[in-house]
Amino acid sequence: MKQVLTIAGSDSGGGAGIQADLKTMTAFGVYGASVITAVTAQNTLGVQGFETVSIDLVAKQLDSVLSDLKFSALKTGMLATSEIIEVVVDKIKEYQVDNLVVDPVMVASSGDILLAEEAITTIKEELIPIAKVITPNLNEAKVLTGRGIEEEVSLEILASELHKLGCEYVLVKGGHQSGEIARDLLYDGVDFIEFSAERIDTKDTHGTGCTLSSAIASNLALEYEIKEAIQRSKKYITEAIKAGCKVGQGNNPVNHFADRKNSIGDFSSSSLKLNST
Ligand SMILES: Nc1ncnc2c1ncn2[C@@H]1O[C@H](COP(=O)(O)OP(=O)(O)O)[C@@H](O)[C@H]1O
Ligand SMILES: Cc1ncc(COP(=O)(O)OP(=O)(O)O)c(N)n1
């Protein structure tokens, strides 16, 4: 079974972060392991608080899983501080894991800040250069290229500027743009490739970024080349948004198991052969 690692924050509400990542990996049939960088108190209404995990314990988690399991891909999400980013980068280099997908999580869609401001430079200088693909949303792409959030700039310009930071591919997500199409743009340093799907009219998009990046990591682990991995992930996130999970009172999470009518399967007693003595 292909193994994929997520290095990210925990979302107590179950819709984003580690919880979304592991559900996504399970949906794609890969084995998901996790290194937790921060614990958020979060629900569909927002982030009520968070604490970071100590550097020592982040390093220990990384050593535990990287020395034992064999990862075909990994993704990073909420890394919270420069110190955590540095230890993550060191361990990825030490254990030489390929297929790193970087989701440069900065702010939750509720507006709550999940990354210290000084850590933006560490992401740019240390994490992005070792990434196969980075998946910033529009605002993250603007921040990483030194722009203001209000500035009008095309996905093409953002992608080509970000590519200069040293990653292999940039996927700028257009989920926060307006219009009938949810358009994401991939850049490999030469060509732009569009991934477009119908925009679903809903506010229930909690966890979309985490889910997309985990889907890409899972599909890279399954040995799909990058364009096919993104195409499959885009289809998955579109269906997951469409199906939604009406569980809370705010912006609800996507449904990671949209393709399954009954995700529990048939465990009724009539389907089991029991030997009794
Ligand atoms: N309402 C929507 N309908 C269809 N696709 C969407 C919608 N909102 C976001 N997406 C898609 O979900 C993925 C995650 O994008 P985005 O929401 O921009 O990321 P983030 O969660 O990091 O802010 C992208 O593929 C984007 O195009
Ligand atoms: C613990 C944690 N990590 C990441 C996020 C951000 O999730 P994302 O999928 O980028 O988008 P929203 O859920 O904010 O729409 C988070 N909220 N919590």
From TrEMBL:
Pathway membership, UniProt: Cofactor biosynthesis; thiamine diphosphate biosynthesis; 4-amino-2-methyl-5-diphosphomethylpyrimidine from 5-amino-1-(5-phospho-D-ribosyl)imidazole: step 2/3; Cofactor biosynthesis; thiamine diphosphate biosynthesis; 4-amino-2-methyl-5-diphosphomethylpyrimidine from 5-amino-1-(5-phospho-D-ribosyl)imidazole: step 3/3
EC number(s) on file: 2.7.1.49, 2.7.4.7
A GO CC annotation given for this chain: cytosol
Catalyses which reaction(s): 4-amino-2-methyl-5-(phosphooxymethyl)pyrimidine + ATP = 4-amino-2-methyl-5-(diphosphooxymethyl)pyrimidine + ADP; 4-amino-5-hydroxymethyl-2-methylpyrimidine + ATP = 4-amino-2-methyl-5-(phosphooxymethyl)pyrimidine + ADP + H(+)
Claim: Glycoprotein is one of the keywords in the record: no
PANTHER family hit by this protein: HYDROXYMETHYLPYRIMIDINE_PHOSPHOMETHYLPYRIMIDINE KINASE THI20-RELATED (PTHR20858:SF17), PHOSPHOMETHYLPYRIMIDINE KINASE (PTHR20858)
Name of the molecule in the record: Hydroxymethylpyrimidine/phosphomethylpyrimidine kinase
Originating species: Orenia metallireducens
